[in-house]
Amino acid sequence: MIAMKGLFEAHLTVNDLQRSMRFYEDVLGLQRAHVVAERQAAFYWIGGPGHSMLGLWGAGAGPQRMSLHVAFAASLADVLDAPRHLEAAGVVPRDFWGEPSREPVVLGWMPAAAVFFTDPDGHLLEFLAMLTEAARPEAGVIPWSQWQIRRREEPV
Fold this sequence. Notes:
five-stranded mixed beta sheet; four-stranded mixed beta sheet
Protein backbone atom coordinates (compact mmCIF):
# COMPACT_ATOMS: atom_id res chain seq x y z
CA MET A 1 0.00 0.00 0.00
CA ILE A 2 1.25 3.50 -0.82
CA ALA A 3 1.02 6.01 2.04
CA MET A 4 -0.52 9.13 0.56
CA LYS A 5 0.65 12.43 2.08
CA GLY A 6 -2.11 14.65 0.75
CA LEU A 7 -4.13 15.66 -2.26
CA PHE A 8 -1.94 17.39 -4.83
CA GLU A 9 -4.47 18.59 -7.37
CA ALA A 10 -8.14 18.98 -8.17
CA HIS A 11 -9.84 20.08 -11.40
CA LEU A 12 -13.06 21.93 -12.12
CA THR A 13 -14.89 22.53 -15.37
CA VAL A 14 -16.05 26.10 -15.96
CA ASN A 15 -18.37 27.84 -18.46
CA ASP A 16 -16.19 30.88 -19.07
CA LEU A 17 -12.48 30.38 -18.39
CA GLN A 18 -11.62 34.11 -18.33
CA ARG A 19 -14.43 34.89 -15.85
CA SER A 20 -13.32 32.01 -13.62
CA MET A 21 -9.69 33.07 -13.81
CA ARG A 22 -10.66 36.54 -12.58
CA PHE A 23 -12.61 34.97 -9.69
CA TYR A 24 -9.84 32.61 -8.59
CA GLU A 25 -7.16 35.28 -8.92
CA ASP A 26 -8.94 38.44 -7.78
CA VAL A 27 -11.36 37.06 -5.17
CA LEU A 28 -9.45 34.05 -3.84
CA GLY A 29 -5.94 35.33 -4.53
CA LEU A 30 -4.62 32.12 -6.06
CA GLN A 31 -1.27 32.28 -7.83
CA ARG A 32 -1.49 31.51 -11.54
CA ALA A 33 0.88 28.66 -12.43
CA HIS A 34 0.23 28.07 -16.13
CA VAL A 35 -2.34 28.71 -18.86
CA VAL A 36 -2.82 26.55 -21.95
CA ALA A 37 -5.07 28.78 -24.06
CA GLU A 38 -5.55 26.29 -26.91
CA ARG A 39 -6.87 23.72 -24.41
CA GLN A 40 -8.94 26.28 -22.44
CA ALA A 41 -7.08 25.37 -19.24
CA ALA A 42 -5.62 27.40 -16.38
CA PHE A 43 -3.68 26.06 -13.41
CA TYR A 44 -3.19 27.67 -10.00
CA TRP A 45 -0.82 26.99 -7.12
CA ILE A 46 -2.35 26.64 -3.67
CA GLY A 47 0.09 27.15 -0.82
CA GLY A 48 2.88 28.20 -3.19
CA PRO A 49 4.57 26.49 -6.15
CA GLY A 50 4.79 22.74 -5.82
CA HIS A 51 2.37 22.35 -2.90
CA SER A 52 -1.10 21.84 -4.37
CA MET A 53 -2.73 22.78 -7.64
CA LEU A 54 -6.19 23.62 -8.94
CA GLY A 55 -6.94 23.21 -12.64
CA LEU A 56 -9.77 25.04 -14.40
CA TRP A 57 -11.01 23.66 -17.72
CA GLY A 58 -13.28 25.63 -20.03
CA ALA A 59 -16.16 23.34 -20.97
CA GLY A 60 -18.40 25.91 -22.62
CA ALA A 61 -21.97 26.71 -21.70
CA GLY A 62 -23.53 23.33 -22.51
CA PRO A 63 -26.52 22.12 -20.49
CA GLN A 64 -24.68 19.12 -19.02
CA ARG A 65 -23.01 20.65 -15.99
CA MET A 66 -21.66 19.19 -12.81
CA SER A 67 -21.38 21.05 -9.53
CA LEU A 68 -18.32 19.91 -7.59
CA HIS A 69 -16.84 20.63 -4.17
CA VAL A 70 -13.31 21.70 -3.22
CA ALA A 71 -12.14 22.68 0.29
CA PHE A 72 -9.11 24.93 0.74
CA ALA A 73 -7.07 24.57 3.96
CA ALA A 74 -6.61 27.93 5.67
CA SER A 75 -5.57 29.33 9.03
CA LEU A 76 -8.27 29.70 11.67
CA ALA A 77 -7.82 33.49 11.60
CA ASP A 78 -8.47 33.51 7.86
CA VAL A 79 -11.53 31.24 8.16
CA LEU A 80 -12.93 33.53 10.85
CA ASP A 81 -12.33 36.54 8.56
CA ALA A 82 -13.57 34.79 5.40
CA PRO A 83 -17.21 35.94 5.61
CA ARG A 84 -16.11 39.59 5.72
CA HIS A 85 -13.62 39.10 2.88
CA LEU A 86 -16.13 37.22 0.71
CA GLU A 87 -18.90 39.79 1.26
CA ALA A 88 -16.50 42.61 0.34
CA ALA A 89 -15.82 40.78 -2.94
CA GLY A 90 -19.55 40.35 -3.64
CA VAL A 91 -19.58 36.64 -2.76
CA VAL A 92 -22.18 35.26 -0.34
CA PRO A 93 -20.61 33.29 2.55
CA ARG A 94 -22.76 30.29 3.47
CA ASP A 95 -23.11 27.78 6.27
CA PHE A 96 -23.11 23.99 5.98
CA TRP A 97 -26.74 23.98 4.81
CA GLY A 98 -26.22 26.61 2.12
CA GLU A 99 -27.81 29.48 4.02
CA PRO A 100 -26.12 32.90 4.03
CA SER A 101 -23.99 33.28 7.15
CA ARG A 102 -21.64 35.83 8.66
CA GLU A 103 -19.71 33.27 10.70
CA PRO A 104 -18.08 29.89 10.11
CA VAL A 105 -19.62 26.63 11.20
CA VAL A 106 -17.79 23.96 13.16
CA LEU A 107 -17.90 20.34 12.06
CA GLY A 108 -17.68 18.76 15.49
CA TRP A 109 -16.48 15.31 14.39
CA MET A 110 -13.22 16.69 12.98
CA PRO A 111 -13.27 19.36 14.55
CA ALA A 112 -12.84 22.05 11.92
CA ALA A 113 -14.15 25.55 11.28
CA ALA A 114 -15.49 26.12 7.76
CA VAL A 115 -17.07 28.73 5.52
CA PHE A 116 -18.76 27.72 2.28
CA PHE A 117 -19.38 29.73 -0.91
CA THR A 118 -19.80 29.18 -4.63
CA ASP A 119 -17.74 30.17 -7.63
CA PRO A 120 -19.29 31.68 -10.79
CA ASP A 121 -20.10 28.17 -12.08
CA GLY A 122 -21.86 27.02 -8.92
CA HIS A 123 -19.04 24.83 -7.62
CA LEU A 124 -19.19 24.60 -3.83
CA LEU A 125 -15.97 25.96 -2.34
CA GLU A 126 -14.90 25.93 1.28
CA PHE A 127 -12.26 27.50 3.48
CA LEU A 128 -11.47 25.05 6.29
CA ALA A 129 -9.22 25.17 9.37
CA MET A 130 -8.65 22.15 11.56
CA LEU A 131 -9.07 22.98 15.25
CA THR A 132 -6.59 21.79 17.86
CA GLU A 133 -9.14 20.76 20.48
CA ALA A 134 -10.72 17.34 20.87
CA ALA A 135 -13.39 16.21 18.43
CA ARG A 136 -16.99 16.39 19.64
CA PRO A 137 -19.10 14.45 17.13
CA GLU A 138 -22.16 14.83 19.35
CA ALA A 139 -22.09 18.59 18.64
CA GLY A 140 -22.87 17.95 14.98
CA VAL A 141 -22.43 21.01 12.77
CA ILE A 142 -22.95 24.24 14.68
CA PRO A 143 -22.17 27.94 14.22
CA TRP A 144 -18.77 29.12 15.46
CA SER A 145 -20.40 31.26 18.17
CA GLN A 146 -22.20 28.20 19.59
CA TRP A 147 -18.98 26.19 19.52
CA GLN A 148 -17.28 28.94 21.52
CA ILE A 149 -20.10 28.94 24.10
CA ARG A 150 -19.86 25.15 24.50
CA ARG A 151 -16.08 25.45 24.93
CA ARG A 152 -16.48 27.94 27.76
CA GLU A 153 -19.15 25.84 29.49
CA GLU A 154 -17.15 22.59 29.47
CA PRO A 155 -15.46 21.57 32.72
CA VAL A 156 -11.69 21.88 32.64
